[in-house]
Every structure is written in structure tokens, then in C-alpha cells.
Amino acid sequence: MANYFKKLQRYDKALEHLEQAIAICTEVRDTHCIAAALDIKGVVYIEQGRLGEAETIFQQELALQRRLGDEKALSYTWANLAEVAIAQGNFKQAEAFLSRSTEIRKRLGDRIGVAININNTGEMFLRSGRPENALPYFQKTVEETERIGFADLQRHAMQMLSETHSALGRHHEAIGWLKKSYVLKDSLFNLDHSRQIAEMAAKYEAVKKRKNSLCGNGNSKPAICSWACPSPG
């Protein structure tokens, strides 16, 4: 329910349900449950702009995840702390948090998570007014997402490369990367459109077979089948 209210941006209701969840999880001594609830609570605080409170919550979650030894969850908590630090303008700390998250994700073989962190490091540098430092991170993101087939992030990184080149005064390169992002966006749309058409065609064929089967039954009335069945051929 908390996630549901968070998506609706009804943050007070989301926090109310999260407090109830934390109380229940604490009562039954379910540390995993407490950590999961704290994670959502921290994200709600970020969305509300309550960055100091979000940092406190994520630090609490971090302590629990360390106790549990849940490395994957730890990588997300470090990434969340980095997001808070970036929003606070504490870029040096954000870089350190992202580095810790990336180290864990590399060790776990989480290539998608690593690609996301590489991109976010680039965005951190761009946001801190260091586009020259951001550039290699976005380039690496494009390369890595090409290898793993993460097209959505690849398109985003192309857009970030366009913004970065623009910030560096390289307008020709900026336009080039923007065009590439549009081409990829169109191909993703066409791929999704083709998939939808294929699904519709499959459903139509299934209905067609079922109707042919019904109309081929000697007990079926011709008057009913005259409109329900596809034309022969």
C-alpha cells in the first residue's frame, strides 16, 4: 500500500503505512522487512525534498543491511545515499558512495546496475559543473549498454552526451548525439509497435481457429456462423 500511495504522490498516506509496517516488522523481529520499509521511506523523503531525513533513514538501512550481509541491497542503499548527496550538492561524497555501490555491483556481476552507476556518476559531474569529467562516463555508458542490450539507458546516455558536448561548446557533436538518441527512440517505438502488432495477430489467429472449429461443427447453426466466421481463404 505504501508504494501505491507513493506513486500517487500521496506521501502522508505512504508514510503512515510505512510506520505501521516498521512497527509490525519490529515486533516480529524481521530485519529484512524493516530494511525494505526504511528504503521506501527514504525514497519518499527524497521525493518530498526532505533530504536530511532521507539521509538519516538510509544510514539506518545501511546499518541493517551490513548486519544482514545483503550485498545487493547494500549497493542500492549506497546509490540512494549518493542521490541524496547529489541533491545536497555534496558531490565528493556522492562520488564516494557511487564508487562503493559500483564495487559491489561489479563483484556481484550486476552489469545493469554498474551501467546505471556509470551514467549517474556522469550526471553528478555534469551537475557539478564539470562536463569534461562527465564525458567519459556517458561514453562508457553508451558502450556498456550496447553490449548488454539496455537500450533505454543507452538512449538516455546519448541525450546526456548531447547536453555535455553543448556545455563544452561543441554544438556539432551535441546535435549529432541528439540525432542518434532520436533514431534509437524511434527504433524502440517501432520495435514496441511491431511487438504489439504481432501480439494482436497471434490473438486474431487464435480467435480465427476457434471460430473455424465452432463453425465446422455439424451442430452449429448456419445463421450464427455467417457473421462469426472469417471468409474462406
How would you characterize the overall build of this protein?
By secondary structure, this protein is mostly helical. The protein has 2 domains: 1-109, Serine Threonine Protein Phosphatase 5, Tetratricopeptide repeat (Alpha Horseshoe), CATH 1.25.40; 132-210. 85% of the residues lie in helices and 0% in strands. The chain has 11 helices and no strands. The longest helix has 45 residues, at 171-215. It is globular. The protein starts with a helix and ends in a 5-residue tail after the last helix. Residues 218-233 have low confidence and may be disordered.
Largest sheet: none
The CATH superfamily title of the largest domain: Tetratricopeptide repeat domain
CATH topology of the largest domain: Serine Threonine Protein Phosphatase 5, Tetratricopeptide repeat
Averaged pLDDT: 86
Share of residues in strands:
under 5%
Return the structural class: mainly alpha
Helix content: over 70%
Features:
disordered C terminus; 85% helix; Serine Threonine Protein Phosphatase 5, Tetratricopeptide repeat; 2 domains; mainly alpha; globular; 233 residues
Sum this structure up briefly.
The chain is about 85% helix and about 0% strand.
How is this fold's topology laid out?
Blueprint: H1 2-7, H2 11-27, H3 31-48, H4 51-68, H5 71-88, H6 91-108, H7 111-127, H8 131-148, H9 151-167, H10 171-215, H11 222-228
Helix pairs in contact: 2-3, 3-4, 4-5, 5-6, 6-7, 7-8, 7-9, 8-9, 9-10
